[in-house]
Amino acid sequence: MSIRIFSPNQQAFGQFDEGRIVEQKPIGFPGEGSAVERVGTLFYWAWFKVKDTGHLPLHPHRGFEIISYLLQGEVHHHDTRGNDERVSEGGIQIMQTGSGVQHSERYEAGTSGFQIWFEPFMGEANYATPSYAHYEHHELPVVTNNGTIVKTIIGEDSPVHLVADAKMWDVTISSGQKFEYEIPEGYSIAGLVVEGRSIWHFENGATPVDSEVFAVCEANTPSSLKIEASTDKDTRVILIKVPSILPYPSYKEVKIRAKVKK
């Protein structure tokens, strides 16, 4: 078992549309400088914040499963398969990019949220038909228990299910309360604290994890993770459960094998 903590200065940063859109990246693309390159099927994670109305022009994707989850604001999505949709605060859009699709996005000023990429087995995903779906906040299940609000974004009772092995939650813990989760053997929890301060109890230790800090808890055996909110403020954290190790050849290996066959 292990817990790894990454402050904002160990994460990557980027910007688009002449700085109108800025990003903090717990997991950046290869070469962008983030301390974490991937966690199992979790390939990329960016927290975007929009200073002024921003636009990303039409650009291509292939193979990866890409979600955008909004903390606030609104995003207008358009793609070459004819989808033209808006997603608002608390909503999620899912692109399973398959054999290839191009899309553009327009962000309203003040919008913030996450774009996250998951990696399925590219030997199959690269030949699948691309698809798009989106769900608003009220369509995602929310459970309140003992001062904790758990919203399931991917997996379990959520309508969102990916090919890649992944589950995702948006968790708000009332001040002084705890959230507990049992991590199965061979899996990791990757978490990003959005608001507040917390103590993560894992591996018989207690580790402070503050706002904008990224944490990865890896379970070699079934292990309990307890996240305790500070006594002065609620804590909001985004949690993603994935296999600790990618269970099939990576996109790079698939690409190399395809070149060798040619």
UniProtKB/TrEMBL annotation:
InterPro entries: Pirin (IPR012093), Pirin_N_dom (IPR003829), RmlC-like_jellyroll (IPR014710), RmlC_Cupin_sf (IPR011051). Residues 55-117 form the Pirin N-terminal domain. It holds the Pfam family Pirin. Belongs to the pirin family. This is Pirin N-terminal domain-containing protein. It comes from Aneurinibacillus migulanus (Bacillus migulanus). The lineage of its organism: Bacteria, Bacillati, Bacillota, Bacilli, Bacillales.
